Backbone:
């Protein structure tokens, strides 16, 4: 008996020795790791145990590891012509450049990036009828292989986006009817119809990046516009190069491009960056605490609160591009009755929801779009929490005896179950029974994304807990996603399906109007109309929670790109 | 034996076809459009329809299924709508991670589970026996996701002894791809740094995944050994003067292991199922992790392929178990 117990013990000891006495995990070769910015062992949080040197060290004992970012929303694709998910903002803007981009933590402003200036009617960049945009390019911009970023590259990129038609084309490219090269550094876009938001749409982080036509043409397969190649490689001109898109491990590795055409103002930039998407978000906090990650976006709220105020960490809340709604589908009874919808508006105490359920991490909305967006003006009608008024309105609508409704949880809003259960209890007080059901997001969004008619609109469900973020900071764009508005390329379904010609008319006018004063008046009327229609309960504008170790310096939040975007050119790691 | 194998292989083939039929039609019952999900809210109906046509999703269901089978016969599992790549390519990336995790957990289960069971049987009703039984019951009762997280907090956050997740340190990167199994590839390349690093990364997920199986195996081994040790032929052997060691190792062990082998067959399948949870907790880029992604994306082409791969693995394990019966007990006839 002793013999086999000894054997087991020996095997166990040998295995433990093999693992625990192993050399420290240092790079085996120079190819494996590009020497990163040298930083000393980061200070550990007060209560967290001291990290074992699992991080690679050089001979001087200094930590040589990349900046590690834990992003929240998953990436859809590394091909800029395809990506339309928020997670794409984590890497695309570092690898590729667009003609324009939005900057600013709030009230974002459009600025030229590859473009030499912002075109307008005065400088001849926009025709008076709003159909022709002439865009001049900077002369010094270069791709990573040294090829110039010129008119040919811009035209190729937009032709590519339109030809591939992988979703991101709907943001700006589809509005373009004709593209032409004026000269080597000037392009001209002629639109299908006047679109006042066109320049803004060119600043979106999706569907606007300029790819290197030379690289693309070299790697084309079966006329795929190098889509297969860009699923694992890059062809950009940005300040970082993508050295690895590791879909299997859910991470992307970027390395600094020292010859970036825009230059490097930061004297101590980060050389190597790893962006990770964790399958289980609860793993993010331990990684931060042990110093194996530097920045985490949207930690679970309890983890964020735990690290907020802890030594060694910086925790910030920023108004995000997301807003949350309880969208009421007016395509079928009883929600086709405006009085019912208005009654329901009075049944939810929004202040209580924001404080008690969202812990104050929502910003109250006074119009259909969050206050962080431009062109937002308080609607004339504001619904207050008033159950008596709700009962009165239901009586006027013919539902004095109460009614039964169903709400969908589709996983598109944090705390959706808590909000709906709270609302359920409130509604019960006035005789309205609210059934809450979990609906697979795929099923729900199929009904939403596909074209639909009044007959098929009820497939979306009566009430949906919805989260919507603008593809760029534009109130027009948010409204287009939530409310039943006319869309380029045909009608699409809307979670708020209400047939209101006035809303359509106002929306169309805003689409075409460039005059700021006229737009303000039109927006004001649009917000009033939407409020009167009462199609959605506005819960509030979201907040991005950013937690970073205090070795990270130079962080700035960009409203238009959300928390997943970290401005790498500005970031340094403290020694 | 040959007839047995042929019969079993034919049966397995039927099971595989059955699995594809069931999965295909169940996946298509869900009113979710993978193309609309991939293209997002900005895609026009025409573009959605164009891509549906490219993937053959506009064909009648039976035609889609036949096309899938035709591709399968040519070794083509179709294209994943979620990843935009051939499913076979995805499986080449994800399957090795699961195999490495699953096989290591299986090996640990066999070594630790059987050893503990045998140890408990030799210390029947003593404190060590009770301790092992307590451990086995704990292993069976504890939920995988809870155990994984507790181990992460203890060994990564508090002690800093083991990595939290993934297959290898970020700074190292994977070894050169030969088999996709990091341990094997590192060994083949003589890269002991990556070998030890990937072993370190394996410890927590393997412990989490194998603990319930260790518990079940230990209990079964103990019970089976105790039963065999009290049987007549063992008493006869003892009366003929055989030593305790000889009785234990030569006479009892082989017979006691027959029910344990049956259990190990089921255990292998359970380990495969457990990877779905463990891979998510430990960010382990295996087939379970991949499956959760493609299921959420309604990418049924990939879902069917994963189900088929799992069915192939499970049925093959069952076949191996049956063959092992014969090896362990020549009295068993394979028909």
Residues:
């Amino acid at each position: 008996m002793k013999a086999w117990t000894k054997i087991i013990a020996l095997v166990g000891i040998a295995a433990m020795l093999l693992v625990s006495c192993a050399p420290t995990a240092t790079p085996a070769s120079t190819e494996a790791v590009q020497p990163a910015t040298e930083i000393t062992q980061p200070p550990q949080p007060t209560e967290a145990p001291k990290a074992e040197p699992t991080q690679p060290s050089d001979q001087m004992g200094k930590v040589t590891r990349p900046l590690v970012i834990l992003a929240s929303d998953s990436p859809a694709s590394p091909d800029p012509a395809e990506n339309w998910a928020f997670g794409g903002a984590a890497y695309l803007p570092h690898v590729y450049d667009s003609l324009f981009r939005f900057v600013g933590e709030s009230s974002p402003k459009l600025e030229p990036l590859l473009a030499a200036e912002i075109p307008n009617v005065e400088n001849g960049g926009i025709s008076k009828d709003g159909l022709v945009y002439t865009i001049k390019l900077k002369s010094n911009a270069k791709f990573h292989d040294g090829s110039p970023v010129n008119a040919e590259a811009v035209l190729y990129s937009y032709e590519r986006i339109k030809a591939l038609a992988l979703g991101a084309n709907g943001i700006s490219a589809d509005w373009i009817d004709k593209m032409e090269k004026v000269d080597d550094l000037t392009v001209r876009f002629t639109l299908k119809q006047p679109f006042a938001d066109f320049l803004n749409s060119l600043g979106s982080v999706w569907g606007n990046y300029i790819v290197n036509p030379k690289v693309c043409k070299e790697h084309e397969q079966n006329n795929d516009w190098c889509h297969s190649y860009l699923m694992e490689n890059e062809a950009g001109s940005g300040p970082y190069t993508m050295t690895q898109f590791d879909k299997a491990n859910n991470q992307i590795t970027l390395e600094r491009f020292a010859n970036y055409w825009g230059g490097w103002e930061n004297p101590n930039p980060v050389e190597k960056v790893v962006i990770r998407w964790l399958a289980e978000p609860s793993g993010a906090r331990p990684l931060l605490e042990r110093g194996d990650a530097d920045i985490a976006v949207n930690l679970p709220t309890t983890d964020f609160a735990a690290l907020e105020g802890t030594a060694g960490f910086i925790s910030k809340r920023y108004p995000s591009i997301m807003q949350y709604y309880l969208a009421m589908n007016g395509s079928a009874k009883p929600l086709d009755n405006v009085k019912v919808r208005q009654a329901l508006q009075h049944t939810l105490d929004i202040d209580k929801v924001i404080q008690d359920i969202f812990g104050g991490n929502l910003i109250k909305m006074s119009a259909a779009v969050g206050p962080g967006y431009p062109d937002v003006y308080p609607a004339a009608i504001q619904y207050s929490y008033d159950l008596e008024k709700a009962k009165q309105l239901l009586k006027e609508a013919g539902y004095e005896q109460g009614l039964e409704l169903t709400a969908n949880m589709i996983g598109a809003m944090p705390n959706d179950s808590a909000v709906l259960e709270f609302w359920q209890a409130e509604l019960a007080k006035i005789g309205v029974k609210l059934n809450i059901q979990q609906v697979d997001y795929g099923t729900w969004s199929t009904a939403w994304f596909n074209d639909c008619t009044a007959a098929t609109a009820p497939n979306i469900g009566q009430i949906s807990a919805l989260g919507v973020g603008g593809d760029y900071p534009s109130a027009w764009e948010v409204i287009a996603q939530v409310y039943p508005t006319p869309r380029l390329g045909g009608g699409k379904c809307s979670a708020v399906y209400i047939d209101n010609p006035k809303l359509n008319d106002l929306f169309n006018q805003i689409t075409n109007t460039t005059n700021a004063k006229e737009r303000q008046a039109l927006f004001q009327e649009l917000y009033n109309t939407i409020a009167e229609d009462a199609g959605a309960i506005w819960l509030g504008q979201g907040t991005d929670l950013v937690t970073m170790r205090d070795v990270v310096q130079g962080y700035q939040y960009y409203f238009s790109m959300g928390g997943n975007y970290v401005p790498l050119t500005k970031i340094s790691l403290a020694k | 034996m040959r007839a047995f194998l042929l019969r079993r292989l034919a049966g397995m083939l039927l099971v595989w076809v059955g699995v594809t039929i069931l999965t295909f039609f169940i996946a298509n019952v869900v009113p979710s459009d993978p193309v609309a999900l991939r293209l997002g809210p900005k895609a026009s109906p025409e573009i959605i329809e164009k891509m549906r046509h490219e993937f053959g999703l506009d064909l009648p269901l039976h035609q889609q299924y036949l096309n899938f089978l035709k591709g399968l016969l040519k070794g083509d599992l179709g294209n994943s709508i979620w990843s935009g790549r051939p499913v076979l390519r995805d499986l080449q990336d994800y399957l090795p991670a699961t195999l490495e995790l699953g096989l290591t957990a299986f090996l640990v289960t066999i070594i630790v589970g059987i050893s503990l069971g045998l140890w408990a049987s030799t210390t029947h009703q003593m404190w060590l026996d009770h301790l092992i039984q307590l451990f086995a019951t704990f292993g069976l009762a504890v939920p995988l996701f809870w155990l994984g997280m507790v181990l992460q907090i203890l060994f990564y956050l508090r002690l800093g002894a083991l990595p939290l997740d993934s297959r290898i340190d970020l700074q190292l990167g994977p070894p050169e791809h030969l088999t996709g199994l990091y341990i094997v590839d590192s060994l083949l390349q003589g890269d002991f740094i990556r070998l030890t690093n990937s072993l370190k990364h394996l410890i927590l997920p393997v412990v989490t995944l194998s603990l319930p199986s260790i518990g079940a195996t230990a209990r079964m081994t103990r019970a089976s050994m105790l039963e065999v040790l009290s049987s007549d032929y063992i008493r006869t052997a003892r009366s003929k003067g055989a030593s305790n060691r000889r009785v234990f190792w030569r006479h009892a062990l082989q017979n006691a292991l027959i029910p344990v082998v049956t259990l190990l067959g089921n255990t292998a399948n359970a380990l495969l199922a457990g990877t779905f949870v463990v891979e998510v907790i430990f960010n382990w880029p295996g087939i379970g992790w991949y499956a959760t992604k493609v299921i959420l994306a309604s990418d049924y082409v990939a879902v069917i392929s994963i189900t088929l791969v799992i069915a192939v693995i499970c049925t093959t394990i069952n076949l191996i178990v049956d063959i092992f019966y014969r090896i362990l007990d020549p009295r068993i006839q394979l028909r």
Summary: Chain B touches chain A through 72 residues (CB under 8 Å). Chain B has 13 helices and no strands. The mean pLDDT of chain B is 89.
